[in-house]
Every structure is written in C-alpha cells, then in structure tokens.
Fold each of these.
Amino acid sequence: MGPQDPFSRQTRRVALVGAVVLMTSAGLSACSGSSSGGTSSTSASASAVQLVDMTPPAKGPLETLTWNLPFGEPTTLDYVKAADYSPDMVISNLCDPLLRLKPDYTYGPNLATAWKSSDDHLTTTFTLRDDVKFWDGKPLTSADVVYSLKRNLDPKNTPVNGAFFERVKDITATSPHEVVITFTQPDELFIKEMATVAGMVSEQSYTESKGEEYGSTAGGVMCSGPFSLAKWTPGQDIVLSKNESYWNPEYTALSTKVTINFITDTATLVSALNAGEIQGAYEIPSTAVPAIQKSNSGTLYQGKSLQVIELLANAPGPASDPKIVEALGMVIDRAGLAKVVYHDVADPNYTLIPPTAWDPTATDVYQKAADALPKATTRDVEAAKALIAGNPNASKPITLAILAGDKTEMDTATLIQQEAKEIGLTVNILPVQSGAFSSAFFDPEARKGMDLLLTQGFLDVPDPIDYLGLFVNKESLFNYTGHDDPEATKLVGEARSTFDDSQRAQLVTQAQVKYEDAHLLVPILSLHELLFLNSKVTGAPASFAYIFEPSLATVGSAE
C-alpha cells in the first residue's frame, strides 16, 4: 500500500494475545448469566483497582536486567516497519522520536526542543537539539530527521506508519537544526504521533548503507537512544548495552546490560518470573493473574491502557447483517467475562472508542455523548430475540474465528457461543493458526469462511482519530462489511483538521452516532496494562505508554 493510504500501518492493531487459562465449564456457565430467555444482568464488575502510571523510582543502578517480550521475537527493528508490541517496545529503547511520550500520555520535547505551526496549520517547524549523537559518534542533523521521516512516505519501504503521513506534502531541512513539514490539510494527529514509533529518527548514512537489511539481525540499526543494540541472537534473545554518551540525563540507562527474552508460554513465563530469572515483563496474560498475584518474588501493577477486545464482522456472511451484530452485543455478559475470564484486569466496553482513549481535555463531551447512546449495559435476551425474529440470517450458522491455542480466546468464544444460542443463533468456533489469522486481518481471501473475528486492538495515543480511520470509511482496513456512510467519513475528516479538543470531540461524537448505529463490530472489553516487576527492581512506567517510551532505561535497583 502506498504512503497516501491512510490505513497502511494498521495490521498491528489486531495483534492477538497468547495466553493459557484454566477454567471450569461451571465458571463459564456462571459468566453467561440467565439462560431462561428473560432479561438478566450480572452484578460482577471489574475491581476498583488503582491504575498507576509509574512504579516507584529506582534507588540505584543495575549491572544486568533481564526482561521478557511475551508476544515473542520482533520481526524487525526497523521503525518504519514496526507494527506490533515487541518491535515497538525494543525500538523505543534504542531510537529517539522527535517528541517524547510520557507515562501519563502527555507529550513534550525530545529530539525537537520546540515546534511551531503556522496560523493555517499547513506548516509546522521543528527546532532540533544540537547536542545529540548517534551511537557511532556522528552528530544528529536535520538531514537525518528529514531522511528518517521521509522513509514513511516511500512505498518501497512498505511503511506501516503511512497513515500518519497521509496529509504530509513535504519535509525539508531549512538549517542544520531546523525541519519544516508542510501539509495538504491541517492534521491535529500528526504532532501526537511524532511521540510514537512514527517519529523515530535513525542515522541516514548507516541506514542507506544497510538497505533492505536495516533493522534485521544482519543489518542492525543506528540510533541515538539510551541503549545500543549489542546483539540479536535469533530465537534466543536481544541484548542491549547502555549508551554511556546519551544526551538526556532523565533517561540515561540505569542498567549496564539488558537481556530481552522471547518467552511466549504462560506457564514458563510465570515460572521464570517467580524464580527471578526474568525480572520484568509487560502484557502479563490475564490468565496468569491469579498465580502471579500470589507471587512472593514481585508485584503486579495495573496501568492505563488503550487496548480493547472486539468482535469484527465480515461480509458476506450472516454476521455482516447489523441486526445480528446488534443482537449479539445485547446478550454478551461483558462484566462477567471481565471477572471470570480476565480476572478483573479489564472493564466492560460498549463503544468502538473506549473511554480511556477520549481526549483528556474533552471527556465531558465524550461522556455526555456516550451516556446518550443506546447500548446494552445489561443482558436483554428477550429484546435480542425480538430484534432478529424472522430474520433469515438468524437461521444461518456463524463461524467465529479465534487464534488457535489461545485458551483465553477459546473461553471467551465459548461464552459468546453459549449466549448466542440463547437467542437462537448458532456460532461455530474456528481456531486459526497464528500466521493465517494474522493474514486474515488484511487479506480478504484469507478471511473467507470467517463471519466474526475475535481481536485485540489498541490505539497509539488517547485520541479517537487514531482509531476511527480503521473502521468508519468505506475503504477502511477493518470495515469488512463495506459499510458506507459519507457523512460519518466527512465528520471524521473534519475532526482531524480541528485543533480545539472540545470542537473536535463534538465532531467525533456526531460521527459516533452514525458508526455505532452501523454495528460494524461488537465492543467487548477495555483492558488494563499489566506489568510484573521483581521486588529487586523498580522504576518502570506502568501505563501502556511504555510501548513508545525508553521504558527499560528508568528501571533500576529497588534496594
């Protein structure tokens, strides 16, 4: 997909969690609520836990730190191709973006000390630091920044961050430490995304010399971050070394050496964490929560997250009928699912954009709009039955695709299957191997035979525009039913050009009425970030913002 395709980067939004859960069939039955056909609700809800942005600050340095990437080995360390949890996290500890995302999801200066937009918002000028050096000692210049950002515009690089550059007209260096970006239309989202992997900068000469090998085990990377890439042993680990000349004392690494492992088996991970062999890990599988909370070796933290669990509808099957999707949404016991399957580390979610992703300065607008939306906060079996009574699609079997080998997904799907049966829908569960399942999200041929897909997605920043382009437009990557609402598309486009948060929220919520009514998917849960730290270490960010921060640099000794 070309750089002007606003959906070219989004395959990573549906990265599926690999986990193992032990549940009894009785537990699932309890979760599903009444089977009598009457209106029912459950009092179960996520625990009122404190979601923290940071763990206590470190008290001293470490010689070595051992971490884990629970979603496995990165496919690349090239920031332009980074499209998932593992590569994003590792790259964010190696490379510097123009701006710095913070644990509370605010952002500020980083490689750029300042930025200023023209009155018409068609030009933004970044002023760069003059004291930054790459690991090889070469100074950072505006030429490196221009080159790095423009890589996201070149279709030959298959840039997965192309969506954030769709309104960029040109990127030029006007002095050794100044970069000017011009836009075809105003773009309020662009600045925020410069604090994510989309804004990363690498050394031009090194990157060009490595060609297609840049970011691979053979080519490596050349950046200016708090760690350098010491070694990448395929299938085993990635080793980072402290950048002794790092320019930012706030993020100077506290660990001399960091070894990052790729354990994906939940039981193995829990054992390694309990034994102290792994000192920390993000994205602890929810199914490991009961065991890990009993651990004497460390602490499980819960932080703010922008991750969601959803059911995506696919055409041409029966689930592409909005009434079928709406009926399913009316009978899924979200609170019970959050408690029994996700062990109170998730909250029920009823809209495409979860409350955690609302613009923080306009929550009142979003809350008012959310309160006005019709949504199934309690199960209503009789109403769901009435909605699809006589509907020919209700008599057709629905194939629900899930990730093979993921017990959490299987238990979630089993619950959905039971609840669908209560309203006369037949749901058949189809476990799909990881490679084929990943392909299904962007390849219509790979989706053939799938009516619903159980997915986990995430936003980069708390801004609905970050996510809406994936679903609302006719050509959107995850609009599998081909739904077309020009008015909703127009409102979302106008919102992206609006810099006042309250005004933008008004536009988004106007569009929300339309896309929620289209029932393109079933929102199910909003997840918490789960971080485990050994009692001997501390200092890590606890929110999902870790994925774009040098999150390992601030981890040090707790003693």
Amino acid sequence: MVYMTSNRNQNWLLPPNIKDMIPKDHICFLVEDVMDKLDFSSFDIKYSGAGHPAYHPRILCKILTQSMIDRVRPSRAIARNGRENVVFIYLAENLAPDFRTISDFRKNNQGLLKDIFKITVSTAKELGAIGLEQLSIDGSKLKACAANNSSVTKEQLDVIEQYANNELMEGIETDKVEDTHFKDCRGYDQLTEIDKKKIKSLIAKYYKQIKKDDYDRISEIKGTIKEARKELEENELDKVSLTDPESRFMKNKKGRFELSYNPQITADHKTGIIVANDVCKESTDNNQLKPQIELAEENCGKLEDGTKVTVDNGYYSGENIHYLNSRGLDGYIPDQQDSQKAKGKKVEIHKFDKRNFRYDERKDWYICPEEKFLVFQREEFYKKKKNIRLYKGTSCTTCQNNKHCTKRKDRIRYVKAYPFEKERKEMAEKMQTQKAKKVYKERKEVVERIIGHYKENLGFRDFLTRSLDTVKNEFNLVCAAHNLKKIWILLQKKKEEIGQTVRIGVGINLRLILSEIFQLEI
C-alpha cells in the first residue's frame, strides 16, 4: 500500500488568500453578499467619536447567520469557529470577536436581525422564488431557556420578595438558610414544606451569586423579582419563572408541560420560503393569524384577492374566518373534526351533532334532525368575552331521542351560536369538498416540513436566550438561515442544469446572476 506524501511541517511559500481555500460554490459567499446590502448607518452614528474601535456589525451579522446555517448556536462555539474555521475566519475578515461580543450583539440588536430576515425575503421575491399564490401558517412550541422548577407562585414570590428586602440586601454571610431567617416574612408559615424547601433553595442560590460576583448582583436580583411580579399581575398567571418571566408553561408533543414560547411562520408554497415570522407568549395559535398576514404583507406587499391561506384547526374561530373573508382571501381552516379526518383518523359525526341542526335565519331558530325547534333564549359572554346566542329546545321533554341528543339531566337540548356562525358553517361545508381537502393536504408538505427542517437539520429545538425580544432575534436568524439555504439549493440546482460555474462574492451582482438562473422554471 502506498500513501500520499504529506507535508506536515511545510511552511507556506507565499501568504495564502483565505478565499481560495473555500469551495467556489460555498453558501458563505451568498451570506456575505446579502449582509453587504444591509444598512449600517445607525451604527456609524452610534460608534462615532472617541473610544476603542468596535467590530463592524456586518462582520457579526455574517458569522451569526453562517453559524445558524451550520447549526452552531452557542456564542462560545461561534467565537471558537472565528479562530479555527476557515469559512468563519473569512467572514470575520481576519478578526476574532469574543463570545461576549457575539452574545451581546445577538441580544441587543433586534431591528438589525429582523432586517436580515427581511432582506432574504425581498431577495427571494426579486428572484421570482416567491409566488404569493398560496400561503401556509403554523406554530410550534419551543422550550425556553428556563427550568420548570424556577417558576414560583404569587405566595412564594411574596415571601422571597420580603426576605430579599429585609435580609438578603443586608448581605448576611451564610451558606445555610434556616427557618429562623424567614420568621418575619408574612405568609411563610402558611406555605407547604415543599414550597419552603423551594424558597430556601432559591435564596441560597442568590447568596452564592452575591458572594461570587464583583458587580452589584443585588440590584439585578431586585429587578428580577420586580419583573416577575409585573408578569404575574399583568397577565393574571398562576406561576411565573424567575429565570425568564416572559416564558409560559405549554404542552409539548410528548404531553409534558414546560416553559416555552410559541414561534409562528408563514411559508410561500412556490419554493418554501418563509415570508413572515414571529414569536408569541400564547400557548394557542388562535390569535396569530391576523398578525402573520399583516407581517407577510409588510415584507412582500399587499396580497391579491383570492390568495389561498391554509392553517390547521388551532387557528379555527369565527373571527379568523371572517377576517379572511373580509380581506378577500381564500381561507382553508378546518375545525377539530375535519382536522382529525385529514390526519386519517376515523371520525363519526353523531346524528344529533350541531352540524346536523339547520338554522332558519328569517325566524331566528334552529331545527333539529327530528324537525323540532330550538328558539332563542338569551345572549351571554363565553371565554374572553365572546358574545354568543343561546337557543333552547321547545319539545325536548316529549322527544323519544332526547337521551341520545343531550346529557343534561333535564333532557333539554341547548345550542350555542358563536359570532359569525354563518361563515363558520360555510367554511365547514367548504372543507368537505375535494378541492379543499387537496389544498389542505399541500399545507403539511410545506410549512410542517419547514418546522421539521429547522428543528432537525438546523438543531433549533430550544432557545438559548431569555425574554421575548431576544428569542425573536434568535428566531429571525433561523428563518433567515432557512431562506438562504433554500435559495442556495435552488441556485445550485439551476447551475447544474445550465452547466454554469459561478463564484458569488462581494463585488458581484448577485441579483443579476440569480435572475438569469431563475428565468428557468423552478
């Protein structure tokens, strides 16, 4: 066997050009070209004047975006790549920002990181990679950077706040927290042994932080407690996390409740480009349809009448159906039964299901399958002050099938008419058609595939930062990374078809080159 001759100790005859060490078709050149088109004028003003020179924000934007593409997310790992990885050395322009600089930049520049995502959308649109003929919206729970045991109830927070104000702020030098230290804290005696143990653990952790750090940790602890109390009171929560007060308990796919956020995406069906994204604190998707449509129009322009919008049953409500109809959009929103059918599950609609009740708009009453009438009874508020109309059966007590129709002890059937009931019924009928079933089936092939891509391929299963604004920064980066990777894959496919070999980098008109390639049918 013969081995290749290696040159372990060979010196470079001439200083190498780092760019020549990177493959010509590497995605980093696309990242570089896109980042060079961002507006950094606000930073020029911010960093003008005396002081130590700062890293140009262009450099940090490039390495943060490339690291997300390469599923390298911790700031220390990104900093290490800036010293060791030739691609990152090239993008960092032979500089090596430390992990703290990278972390602070990612946390404090929400507007710029949002612009990175927007410019990927505008680039894709200019290239014709976005059709805006059909959009799909979906959300997915992602774990927050906070442990479940970091959450406290209002009663526990009251005791912690009193103790912090009375004892902790005086700097008691002890590593062991005794019950005698809490005797003056109101409400401590009413707590369970588990709650007392939890409070002692939290206070002990604060002691260690104060003794370990040189700067004023006490002020930070006060701020944490104040922020947690604000979240409890403003949002009427049962529990709040001291680590990340803006996170919420949400049920994940495994059925466990954990502190999480709910990121939302809107995807275009032509090539799977994400055209809008956001992160919310709500565990349900019901209130996110309208904001996503508005963000999509902000990034891509007004949607034309008849644009198809598909969502799952988590967005089902009369308000959302009415909003799409009022905008002239062709919505596809299944209710829970239609959603179960779309997943291949067998769903039996009972004879006395509300769907089988006919509504007479002229006389304002419902007619049941037994041809008996339900007349208007009263209006009432239901869940978040939704105004509903209640209809009561008039002949239920004499009906032979009343035991199959209702489980009430008085055997009287009531029907609730929610807002926009007529539009809800029209949507239910629409979702039974073959066309609607086909359109809804296409949804999971686009938007759900994107969610699977950033979770599995990009390793984005949880957030590394805390607070709603900073997790939005992270999510903008992962959505930008997805779009850039999608554009690059399409570009490579078209280059193979026409036999082109193009090196894209600074100084080359990216849009002109890509436009020529994308003239072919995608």
Amino acid sequence: MTTWEELLAKLQEKEAQAKLGGGLEKQQAEKAKGKLLCRERVDALVDAGSFVEINTLAETQTFEFDMQKKKILGDGVVTGFATIEGRPVLVFSQDVTVFGGSAGRAHGEKINYLFRMARKVGVPVIGLYESGGGRLQDGIQNESGYGRMFYENTCCSGVVPQIAAIMGACTGGGVYSPALMDFIIQVEKTAQMFITGPAVIKEVIAEEITFEELGGTETHSRQSGVTHLVAKDDADCLRLIRKLLSYLPQNNREGPPVTPSRDDPFRSNDILTEIVPAEPRKTYDMRLVIREIMDQSEFFEIQPVFAQNIIIGFGRLDGHAVGVVANQPLYLGGTIDINAADKAARFIRFCDCFNIPLVVLVDVPGYLPGLDQEEKGIIRHGAKMLYAFSEATVPKITCVLRKDYGGAIPAMCCHETGADLLFAWPTAEFAMLGAEAAVTILYKKEIAEADDPKRVRQEKLKEYKETILSPYHAASKQYIDGVIRPADTRRWFIYALNLLKDKRTEEVIWKKHGNIPL
C-alpha cells in the first residue's frame, strides 16, 4: 500500500528534478559567464519569499525526433506569480539550459496561460527572456504555443503593463514577443537580439559580424531604438524593472501609484533662469530643467541615448507619477526628426493607455529639414506625434520655454492637439518661422527698395519679435493660458494636475480603432 511518505517523497523528487533544468553542468557554465540562473533571476526580482511557481511539472508532448525521450520538467521556462513592493505581478523566466531556451508548444502554453491570467486579474506581466527562438523539433505545433504568444501579447497591450528583460541571446522569433511588450531592458555584453544570426548572414551575404555588433546594447539602444533601457548586469536589470514598475499602475482601469512626496509642492524654481539662456540661439540641457521641476529632482529617463533630440521618461509631481515629453536643444537644436517622432509617439500612447498624465516642455525650432528625412518619410513619422497627442485623453499640460515654431507647434501638444492647459515663459516665441526667416520672406520687396535696407530690416525684426513672436501676443488671443515666471513652473504644473485629476472627455466617437500612420 502506498503511503503518504512515499507520495510526498516522489513529489519532492520531481520538484528537485525540475529545478535542475538542463543539468548542473549547464547551470554552472551559465554562472561562469556572470549570469544568474532563471530561478535566481525571479527570486532577485520579486519580494523575498513571494514567488509561487505554477505548471512546474509541464513537459513537452512532442514525439518527433525522439523528443519523448528528452522530456525535461518545466520545458524550459519558469512561470508563476509574486509581489513587487507588495503589488501582485506575473513573471516568467526562460531557462537557457533547456534546449537553449527555445520555445516549444508546452513552453509557449505556460507563458500564454500567464498572459490570459494577467487580463483576468489586471496585473503586470514581466518576462525574463533568453531564448534561441522556436524549437525546431516541435514544428507546426509551435504555433499553438509559441506562435500564440504574439497574439496574447497583443491582447494584453493597453490592458496591463508588459515589461521584457533581455538577459541572454534572443534570436529569431524569440525577439518578437519582447517587441510587442511595452518596455525592453537589455543587459549589456551578455544579451543580444537579432532575427538572423551571424552564421546565416555570413552564408547568405558573405558578411562577417559578431553577436554584439549585430544585436548588442549599442546597436539596439542607440541605433535601432528597440531597447528602452540598458542594464550593466543581471542584478541591475532586475533593479531597473522594479524602478520602472514603481511609476506604473496595475492595469488600464487604475491610476499610477502615489508616493508620499518629501518635496515642497510650492518650491520655487529660481535656478531655471540660470539653466535656460534668454537668447534663443544659445543651448542648454533640458534634463536639468526636468530634474529641477520634479519631486526630489528625480527623473527616470526612457531611451536616453536614442533620438536624443527628444526626451521622454517618468517623474513625480507632489507624489503623482507623470510622463514627460521634452525637446532637447543640445541635439539637432531640439528639432523633431523621424526617430524622435517615433520615440515620443509610442511613449505618449503608453501613458494614455495607463492613465499617466503628460507634461510637455517645449523648445523646438521645427521638424528637421533635409532630403534624407523626406525620403525616409518624415511626413508619415512626424504625423505619429500629432495622432498620439490628439488621441490621448489623459491630462496634458504644456509649457513653452523658448521656441515653438511651425509644424512642431501641434506636434508638441498645443490646444488644438489636446493640451488642457498651455503656459509659456516670457522667453517663449510662437510663429511659423523664426524672425530672421519670416522677415526675409514677408518684407523682401520693402527691404530691397529701401534707401537703407539694413536699417529697415532691423526695424522689421524688432517689430516682428515684439508682436507676432511675443508670448503676450499669443496670450492676448488666448492661444496660451498664461505667461508664467520660470520660478513658478513646478507649482503651476501641480496646480494644473490637481485641477485635471478627475478630467473627463467631452465627446466619445464610436470606432473600432483609429489608423495611426505607422
């Protein structure tokens, strides 16, 4: 007769077997690379003792290629639920020691179960990825597990936050699930992403390239923009996930968490007049402006080295999380180019999905001109910002620091593209063109026919700057809601957020969904 002792001993044996993954030798090889094992990653990410693993004993059901003789409990992915700072999350962590982390049917089904559960209970999903892509031995069976993953990612989009961590090589289809998630954090040196590996590239086009050159953090954080944040190592990656999550709500029906502020909401920003030159041609670092305004000078920047002419990220005002979109005069004069438009539009849409108010800081001379930008579709890409701001229903507060010119005016959220409140500093300038270019066009004949063309030109420049460009001209027409002192910027933003905290949209137009110019 079977006893409880025997039954429990068998269960304990299977649980221990599952924890071995692909075996001790493979686990030790991963540790030698300075990496954490898949379960160690989960334990380091979540609150101590909070992780509850599910589907631990799942196995591949594939029989082709003698796979029935190669079953490994868990099938190469650890899945379960836990808490981070006391908030429930769902987590999965791929095990590279099991078939290279490749995703077969059982592997995919475990992850898909988590995505469906996330929608049911309204909690974020965090994926710790290290995968060789689809498992070849599973063939078409991959589609019900691995292929279904992309559908589940899409169903969760805009419903619960999805955070992907690339913690090892992810290849082929193994990068598409992360690409469908909201944020990607990549570990430098030990993690790469690419669709086609170096060996295939060499064979097909005779080009030799390393893993790191093809899909490392330098490529994806600076050039492609696929990676949102770069981590120094596994531990830093998990820290960044926790930090990012602190700004995000559990789901699309909740607001972001409120943190008790240790900063005076009425604190004066006197230093801003030292940071920002009154002369519009002089440059400065917009990050210093953002940090000065935010609680405790804390700003969590997203994609900091991609499209550096625009800044996006999270901060807090009086304890409330906000999304920040700002021009960066240090790069390309703060103009909007293709990459900047894509970067900003996606961030705006994310904040709108999850009820995070938007704060917009403007100092923009326009879209970046040139044949290269036109050929690559600046019209289409630039329109994404117009679409994103116009579509967003969260509170939107804009402040113009200096230049606000041309087609970039609506792109940086004016009243006509949805700004609830629009302020300007005394240094702000509003026009289709800067004074020099505008006067040259508007008064070309008058200047040319004058006895003293230089004097007439200077007079027209002065007149244009004091009328059309002036923030007081814009205020007189109620285009802006107020000219404010730079020192009052923080308190004005907090006043505005308090006013708009219960904002409701006036009109709901029925449609299945819009068609953003992708």
Amino acid sequence: MSESQSGLARTARILRFLLKYRGAGVFTGLDLDSVSDGEAPAISGKPEEFVDDLEALGPTFIKFGQALSTRPDLVPPAYLAALERTQDDIAPVSAGQIRAVIESELGVRPSHLFETFDDTPLGSASLAQVHRATLRDGRAVAVKVQRPNISDVIHNDLDALAAIASRADIATKVGRRVHFADWVHEFRKALLAEMDYVCEAENLCRFRTHFREYPEIVVPAPLWDFSSRRVLTMELVSGHKVTEVGGLFRTEHDIRHLAEALLRGYLDQVLVHGDIHADPHPGNLLVMDDGRLALFDLGMVVHVPPRQRDRLFRLLFAAVEGRGEDAAREAIGMSTRLEDFEEERYLREVGQLVARYAAHQGQSTSESRLLFDIVRISTACGLRSPSELSLLGKTLAHLETVCRALDPRMDMKRVVDRHLDSVMGDRLRRSLSPHRVASEIMELQALAREAPRKLSDMLSLLADNRLQIRVTGLEESRLMENLQKIANRITTGLIIAALIVAAAMMMRIETKAQLFGYPALALVMFLIAAALGIGVVVSALLRDRKARPREESGPR
C-alpha cells in the first residue's frame, strides 16, 4: 500500500471512531441546566469502550485522550472520568532497538557511556520507555528513550486530525463554537514539545530552581552530556508511589506536610512563574525513603503569558473570597465572546456557582470542579474559554488526589486561600519596589513632558482646519472585496437583462441568417445571456457563504 493510500486509510479509521461516538454526546459539550444543578446528564454510550477504542488507535490518541480529559466543555462527565484512567503503559520494545536509538542520538554505544545498563525497563509508555543505568563514576541514573519511528506516526496522525478539525469547524455548529482546529493546533504544539527531551530537560532545570523554596520537594537534575532530543538522562529517584505509602512508613515519617508544600509550590508555578505542569498524577510523584517528595516526568508543561497569568490569579482570588461576579468578569476577560454570548445569564450562573463554592468548607469543596464548571457554563453561554483554564483545572484535580493520599484531612480550600493572600502580598511588595516605582515615575515624566506639545499640535491643526483622520487598509479589506463582488454581479445582471431584451426584440426581425428557425444573432445573444445567468447562479451557490459568527476577545 502506498503512503498516500495508507494516510487515507488512517484518516478513514479516525473518522469512523469520531462518528461512532458522535451520537453518544462526545465532542458536543453539555447543556447549562445540568451544570447548574450539579448533576451529570444521562449519556448513552459506553465510556470504557470509548477509551479502549481510543487506545487502540495508538500513541497519538492515548495522548489525545489525556488532552480531552481537560475539556469538560466538549466531553460529558462520564467520559471525562473514563479518560482519567487512560492507560499509557504498553508493551516495551526490545532492548536492542533502545540501544540503537541511544547510539544514534549520542553517537556512542551505551556500553561505552554507562557502566551498567538494565535492559528491563523501569516503565514503558506510549512515547518512550525508561531504563535504569549506572554512570562510570557510580551515579545511578534513569535513561528515558523515545520509541523508534514514533515521530513519523505522530506527525501523520496530527496531520489527519488537523484536516478533520478544519472541516468540522466549517461544517458543524459545535466546531464553529469551540474551534477544533485551534485546539488541535495547541495539542500539536504540546505533544511535539513533549517529544523533544531537550525541552523536558529545560523544564527539569527550571522547576528545580523554582522549588528551591520548598526543600520538601525534589526534582531530579538532567545530565546534559547524556541527553538529546530523543534521549533524556537524569538523576535516578526511587521511593513509594504516593497512593501506596504503607502505615509503617507513615509512623516513621510525617508526610502530611508534603501535601501543603506540593500544593503551594504548584500554585507558585502557575501564578508566579507561569508554568502549568498538566500531568502531576500519582504515578509522577514518589515519596522518597528520607521523607521528601520527588517530582519527575515534566514533558507536559504549558507556559502562561503574564497577562493571562494575572487574570487566572484574580479569578482564583475572587472565587475563594466568594466574589462571583468579579470571578465571572475575569473569566470573560480571558475568553472569546461568540456572537450568541449571553452575558447576564453567564454572570448569574457563575455567581451562583462561586457562592456555593465559597459557602462550603473543608473537603466538600473542589477547586478543580469549580474551574471545570466555569468552563462548562462558558460553553453553554457562548463564551470560548482559554485552554489554560481547563489545564489548571486538570492540574488541581491531580493535586487533589495526591494531597488526599498524603494528608486525608487536609483542607485544600484553606491552603489555597492563605497562599493566594501570600502571593498577593508579594506582588504588592514588588510593585512598590524602588526599581518599579522609578520606572513608573520615568514614564509619567515622559508623558507630562510630551503632553503639552502634542496638545498644542492638535489644536493648531484643528484651528487651521487641517486635522485629518486616516483609515488605512480599507482597499485591501474584506469589505472592499465583497463590494466589488456585488458590483460585478449587478453589472453582469444588467448585461444579461440587456442581452435578453435585445434578443427578444431581434426575434421579430426577419433575417437570412437563421439558426434552428430563429434569427441567428438573436439566438446567440439569448444563449450568451443564459450562460452568464447560469454562471452567476452557480457562483452564488458554491462560493457564497454565511458570514462567520462575530467573535470578540476580552480586553487585554
């Protein structure tokens, strides 16, 4: 089978999968009433079968499922719960293939690089597998090696998904609302970044620096001389999974404080440093023998721009204080308003949601559910939420699981509330620092110095009747293009009408030139008019389309 035929067959298989679950409510979002009542709507279909079919499509779709688990606006709760259990543990490839990848990437045989290299992997996932090794100086390391030829498979699947998403955005109502193509584009960037182990090594270094304020948390250091785009060598950390810590270990080590340190550290990562590690599930965290918490597998990290980071902070801060309308305003500011956006309904629903959240105390509250419900309400009311909001919700959901395992009695709402107060205090202190104040004063000084001259110039132009307002780009705009189309069609219509009238008048004139018993010139003019008329109708049917719904981004 040729490459093109193989690609078409793969695309057809993906389409069959998507269409199979289209009727079950997947990829359609939820109605607002079910969200407001706090109950999941009844969904037909089998979520576990959905996940099984997703995994059968291969590594791209295992990651696709993990990404879908961050989109409560697209996927019903029953399917979200199933997607959280997406298995990323598959049969390993042979040790010979792994050694070949290491030699190809690092240019040296593993036997020359490492004193020992364990052919049995510590773990095997859809994109890579990890092996234990020992350096020549005796240090134990973990070597993460990308599966051979996985890159070509990923790129082909991503191209197929992008093509399907683009067509869905044009042909479906839900596509026009949520923009599947944009989401697939973000998924492509995240997945390709996860496959670049240089990026993951940089993430390890950056997180090590940021977590220095939290000595309870350990991030293994990468070894740059033994790493490349497809091979990552890092310090080996060992211990117990946070969900498998035994009672004896708990009596010897007080690990309850690890939960608060982890939560506070992750809030700093997002709100201060702008990094969302979207995959802090229990499998990526180990309680070490000395009582510290080790964090690894930092391939899935998304950077949040400063302004979006500020809005996330203000949204969370308003939510924990019970200011629902302020939280809704921040969500609107960081989202895109669709043409049918119902602002009053949105403010009311989010206000009620935040009020319920603020009224509950202790373990009955869930910050992740709050964010997920805000995303669902946004979609139902015609507001497209940014991916960062869903990613933060997923991160908090994983952290809730880890924190409950470390300290079952921990009050996450109280910890989040106190830490947000601390972050706010730090921001105020930085805003009043001498350097920041001096910078603001210099800007005010420049404004005060330039304002009188600019005002004088404007008044002079106004007095001389020379004040002009120039609008550029109109000649290249879509408006001018559409006006030209209208003018062309009107002109064509006039020509068609003139030809028909002229042909009808000439039909009465007797001439020697006959065609099918009619005056030849009159018949030719009539046929030209008919051809032009058919051309205009066909053009209108094929090329004319409804204007895209007007979308408006929030203030920046």
